[in-house]
Specification:
192 residues, 6-stranded mixed sheet, globular, Rossmann fold
Length: 192
């Protein structure tokens, strides 16, 4: 279990690749296999172990930060009390606990990204797919997210897309450089 970074400019194919890996789009060739099983043949099992932070925030304007975490935690099969507990821990780790009773419309872009990351982490998924999770965050927040992801290295498989070389270098055990929808180079940062 490690962190793979997809690195590429805007339009390189990172988001499309992430959508295929998450099972939202069918691959135009080949197949997506997780632990020896095609995700498209075992979608329920795959998604029950998946945490997803899409490129664009999928949040409800009428819910608070806390309500989002409870809602998505329960969608992932957690009890309400477990969702409350997990949500409180994640809000603290991501420095959004003070915003727990705020509606989404009152949050900055960086705070919304932190909430989307917290949603992805609810239930401690075995697979984490993060599409530009630190977009819109200040440097301090980005480093906070990096530290959190690095602390969970070895406990889950994480795939993160970014257009920041520094982020790919810090986080990625392996880096896949994408261009025109294809992986043009893959290896450790030392190899690249």
């Amino acid at each position: 279990d490690n962190i793979t970074a997809l690195l590429g400019h805007n339009g390189a194919g990172k988001t499309t690749t992430m959508s295929i890996l998450a099972g939202f789009l069918p691959p135009s060739g080949g197949k997506v296999v997780v632990r020896g099983k095609s995700i498209f043949d075992n979608m329920d099992e795959f998604r029950s172990n998946l945490g997803l932070c899409p490129q664009h925030d999928l949040l409800f304007s009428f819910l608070t930060v806390r309500e989002h975490l409870i809602f998505f935690g329960m969608l992932k099969g957690l009890s309400m009390s477990q969702s409350e507990q997990d949500g409180a821990v994640l809000m603290s780790k991501l420095s959004i606990f003070s915003k727990r009773n705020e509606q989404i419309t009152k949050l900055s872009g960086g705070m919304k990204r932190k909430l989307c990351l917290a949603i992805a982490l609810m239930g401690s998924p075995q697979i984490l797919i993060l599409d530009e999770p630190t977009a819109g965050m200040d440097l301090e927040s980005r480093h906070q997210v990096w530290d959190m992801l690095l602390a969970s290295r070895g406990h889950r498989t994480t795939i993160i897309s970014t257009h920041f070389m520094e982020e790919a270098d810090v986080l990625g055990d392996r880096i896949a450089i994408m261009a025109h929808g294809l992986v043009s180079c893959y290896g450790t940062s030392m190899f690249l």
